[in-house]
Design brief:
Elements (H helix, E strand, L loop, with lengths): L2 H13 L5 H13 L2 E2 L4 E2 L4 E2 L7 E2 L4 E2 L4 E2 L4 E3 L9 E2 L4 E2 L4 E3 L3 E2 L4 E2 L4 E2 L7 E4 L4 E5 L3 H4 L2 H4 L3
Parallel strand pairs: 1-4, 2-5, 3-6, 4-7, 5-8, 6-9, 7-10, 8-11, 9-12, 10-13, 12-14
Antiparallel strand pairs: 14-15
């Protein structure tokens, strides 16, 4: 079973105030898929994890929009004990091995390249890559650049 399906079950149990079950599903996600996706994380509808979510780490306070694609080995989390963590907009494609760290907002319809390290905000409709990530293209049409619609079944 994929990590996102287990997360959805854990999240539903958490919202229904069912004790212990969310924690059991959280541990199952780690054991089966080798990733950390906390049941308190807000992940939008239609979001998919590549390869079942292998190696994905998402901070429990992160917010991820609808219809996003998160490939394997992605980290979305805090930075140097900052209390504010990333907010990912709708329809964002995050490539394999990307790191999105700290008080960062990723605009909707954006692409984060593989192994990019995002430390600053990304405007909507942009593609970024590099260490640290820099804007490569702006005003992109995400449907032309990647197959996000077919992955998220839109």
């Amino acid at each position: 079973m994929s990590a996102i399906k287990l997360y959805r079950i854990a999240r539903k149990c958490y919202k229904m105030h069912i004790p212990l079950l969310p924690k059991i599903f959280y541990r199952l996600i780690y054991l089966i898929n080798n990733c950390h996706i906390h049941y308190m994380t807000d992940i939008g509808e239609g979001t998919k994890l590549g390869y079942g979510g292998i190696g994905v780490v998402i901070h429990k306070d992160a917010v991820i929009g609808k219809n996003c694609v998160i490939e394997s080995n992605v980290t979305i989390g805090g930075r140097n004990n900052e209390p504010i963590v990333p907010v990912i907009g709708d329809r964002v494609f995050i490539g394999t091995g990307a790191r999105i760290l700290g008080n960062v907002k990723i605009g909707e319809n954006s692409i984060i390249g593989a192994n990019a390290v995002v430390l600053k905000d990304v405007p909507p409709n942009c593609s970024v890559a590099g260490v640290p990530a820099k804007i490569l293209h702006s005003d992109i049409d995400i449907s032309e650049k990647c197959n996000i619609d077919s992955i998220t079944n839109r």
